[in-house]
Amino acid sequence: QSALTQPPSASGSPGQSVTISCTGTSSDVGGYNYVSWYQQHPGKAPKLMIYEVTKRPSGVPDRFSGSKSGNTASLTVSGLQAEDEADYYCSSYAGSNMGVFGGGTKLTVL
Amino acid sequence: QVQLVQSGSELKKPGASVKVSCKASGYTFTTYAMNWVRQAPGQGLEWMGWINTKTGNPTYARGFTGRFVFSLDTSVSTAYLQISSLKAEDTGVYYCARYHAGNSWSDYWGQGTLVTVSS
Fold first, then answer.
1. Contacts with A65 (C-beta within 8 Å, 6 or more apart), sequence order
2. For residue B4, how many other CB atoms are within 10 A of its CB?
3. Cβ separation of A93 and B104 shorter than 8 Å?
4. If you measure CA to CA, which chain A residue comes closest to B103?
5. Torsion angle, CA of A47/A84/B115/B58, rounded to 10 degrees?
6. B103/B101 Cα distance (integer angstroms)
7. Is-contact B80 B36, C-beta < 8 A?
8. How many pairs of residues across A and B have Cβ atoms under 8 Å apart?
9. Confidence of residue B18 (pLDDT cuts 50, 70, 90)
10. Residues of A in contact with B62 (CB under 8 A)
11. Is A82 in the B-facing interface, judged by CB distances under 8 Å?
12. A46 to chain B: closest CA residue
């Protein structure tokens, strides 16, 4: 399974919204509603932000939302805050009990 | 509360083996699978595979077959990752994560174990 494609970087000013894309194929992102998103601050373990495309775990602010259209999933962060600056990774079920991550996107809050 | 606590950093020579442990607490160990993820220095996350904690059946991603072995000791709620014939390119942080295998997402993560392979 090949890594999902994410833009290397994204940025926005405090209070703005930013959307990060995650492009796969019909064998992963497009074939299943099993896309998840993880936030990782430097030196820390990843944290689950979104699962099953649109669902937010308890404790994750509703500023974070997920969506999917065809083979591309998206994570939108609204009302950007300084603490949102981190790396973000998408992941998808890829069939045959396998998963795959995206290459990661570094989000900068200007 | 759910916790996954991993063993400490390891420095190994090429050709040696290493075994990383991941001790779970705060939930019934066999209710959820365990996922393993690698992060090379300065790089992204790589999905290594997972192990069914009820049956012990492992699933390995391409690139993680042969030298990588997932195992369990359910009596102490611990999952293990063993890597043999270590190479320099195995250097990285290895994470375990509680895994929802049916829908492929991980909700709780260990703190990571740095494995450094250097002569």
1. A50, A54, A56, A75, A76, A78
2. 24
3. yes
4. A34
5. 30
6. 5
7. no
8. 66
9. very high
10. 1
11. no
12. B109
**Residue B54 — left, alpha, or beta (φ > 0 → left; ψ -120 to 50 → alpha)?**
alpha
In this structure, the strands spanning B113-117 and B10-12 are parallel
The dihedrals phi and psi of B75, each to the nearest 5 degrees, come to: -65, -25
Among chain A residues, the shortest Cα distance to B106 is held by A48
Q: Which two tokens stand for residue B95?
A: 């994470």
Q: What is the pLDDT along chain A (110 residues), one digit of tens a residue?
A: 689 999 999 999 999 999 999 999 999 999 999 999 999 999 999 999 999 999 999 999 999 999 999 999 999 999 999 999 999 999 999 999 999 999 999 999 99
- Within 10 A of B62 (CB to CB), how many other CB atoms are there? 9
